[in-house]
Amino acid sequence: QVQLVESGGGLVQAGGSLRLSCAASGRTLSGYRMGWFRQAPGKEREFVARINWSDSNTYYTDSVKGRFTISRDNAKDTLYLQMNSLKPEDTAVYYCAVISWDGRTYINRFGSWGPGTQVTVSS
């Protein structure tokens, strides 16, 4: 099973940018659809963005469209999330995962989560 570790979070002012990384170990990410999720204090974890392995097609939740960009480097087995024009409501712990579609939404295919990386956006 693949292990994922997120990094790149931090404290940033509204309007700023951060780039998150997700490094894999244990097995390659080749062939997997990947995604980012986030969990804000007191809220459930929510899907943010996903990218296909085969064609790098991307999809975003409405609240981040035009501001966030998901990408991957298959040679490095690394997933990225470039976050621009950050807002206080983007404050959350961000997680990456191998994902699948359950007919209603994207879910963590393997069920386990990494430590996540904290993103805090001040107003």
Query: Structural class of the secondary structure composition?
Result: mainly beta
Distance between the termini: 39 Å
What value does the average pLDDT take?
95
Describe the sheet with the most strands: 7 strands, mixed
Helix percentage: under 10%
- Total number of strands: 11
Helix and strand element order? EEEEEEEEEEE
How many helices does DSSP assign?
Answer: 0
Q: What sort of overall outline do the alpha carbons produce when their principal axes are compared?
A: globular
The amount of beta strand, in percent, is over 45%
Q: Radius of gyration, rounded? A: 13 Å
User: Low-confidence runs (pLDDT<50, min 5 residues)?
Assistant: none
Short description:
The protein contains no helices and 11 strands. By secondary structure, it is mainly beta. It is globular, with a radius of gyration of 13 Å.
What does this structure look like?
The strands form two sheets. Strands 2, 4, 5, 6, 9, 10 and 11 form a seven-stranded mixed beta sheet that branches. A four-stranded antiparallel beta sheet has the order 1-3-8-7, with no helix packed on it. It is an all-beta fold and 123 residues long. The chain is built from no helices and eleven strands. The relative contact order is 0.31. It has strands at 3-7, 10-13, 18-25, 34-39, 46-51, 58-60, 68-73, 78-83, 92-101, 106-108, 117-122. Strand 9 and strand 10 (106-108) form a beta hairpin.
